[in-house]
Amino acid sequence: MEAVPDPPGRVRPVKIGILGGTGPAGSALAARLADAGYPVVVGSRSKYRAMEKVDELLEQWPDRNLPIEAGDNATAADADVVVIATPWDGATQTAASVSEHLNGKVVISMANALTRIGKEFQPLVPPRGSVAASVQAVVPGCKVAAAFHHVPAKELGDLDHPIESDVLICSDHEEATAVAAELVDAIPNMRPLDAGELSQSTPIESFTSVLLQLNVRYKTRVAVKFTGLPDGVAGLEKKPKRAEVAADPPTPAAAAE
Asked: Which residue, 99, 143, 146, 195, has fewest beta-carbon neighbours within 10 Å?
């Protein structure tokens, strides 16, 4: 993940913008990433709604000094990496509305196309087969990764407790997979797994309906955890957690001081 240089000889943390960040999943992810050291912009169609959500998060976690700010979706889309956390049926419209800000950037789609019929959740098949693929089609200049679909929002937003979960990531762009993996890896007890190309987002998104059905049946909130995989699988090596890194390695003299 490339960061933007700050003088003198330092780089600032990568800023994350969350479109539709006032919902349960988006605001929970905003809190977790901010707690991991990433500056986060919570975006919304209404800047004032975003401001209310940011105030709520800061009041909920007053001792954590979360680097969160509010803005409209265009402001959030100006960030270095953008997450789409809107309801699934608004994801492509939202992406299209800020497309000029997304070209060339990594965009992470976490929306699931689902509906509830009676007592059961059922997956829907959006155009292109998945929400993530639809976003890639409407903004072809960005680099979409599908991720964070199976993480329960309430547990994700509870910063007092680590959430143990694997996160499946799929993309047609290696950079997008690597960026999404770094964000996942920054959250304690979460493990990124490379699930392949963006075509895999169809079954990944659909499987969320199974998890929700388990939640209803067993009155719990389940997360996905795979066994038999070593750390650093699929080339996603463990990286040190960091809020900022040096632009250049220290010279021998500086290292000795």
From this structure: 99
- Number of other CB atoms surrounding residue 237 within 10 Å: 11
Nearest Cα to 149, choosing from 223, 92, 77, 220?
223
Q: How confident is the model at residue 232 (pLDDT cuts 50, 70, 90)?
A: low
What pLDDT, in 10s, does the model give residues 104-141? Answer: 999 999 999 999 998 889 999 898 999 999 999 999 99
Distance CA 114, CA 182 (A): 27
Is 84 within the bounds of a domain?
Answer: yes
State pLDDT tens for residues 189-219: 999 999 999 999 999 999 999 999 999 999 9
Number of structural domains (the chain) is 1
Structural domain contains residue 170: yes
Contact yes or no for 16/105 (Cβ under 8 A): no
Distances (CA, A) of 62 to 47, 91, 121, 151: 22, 31, 36, 24
Helix (H, G, I), strand (E, B) or coil at 64: coil
Q: What are phi and psi of 26, to 5 degrees?
A: -65, -45
Phi-psi region of 235 (alpha: psi -120 to 50; beta: other; left: phi over 0): left
Q: Is there a contact between 74 and 98 (Cβ–Cβ < 8 Å)?
A: yes
Q: Hey, what amino acid is at 85?
A: A
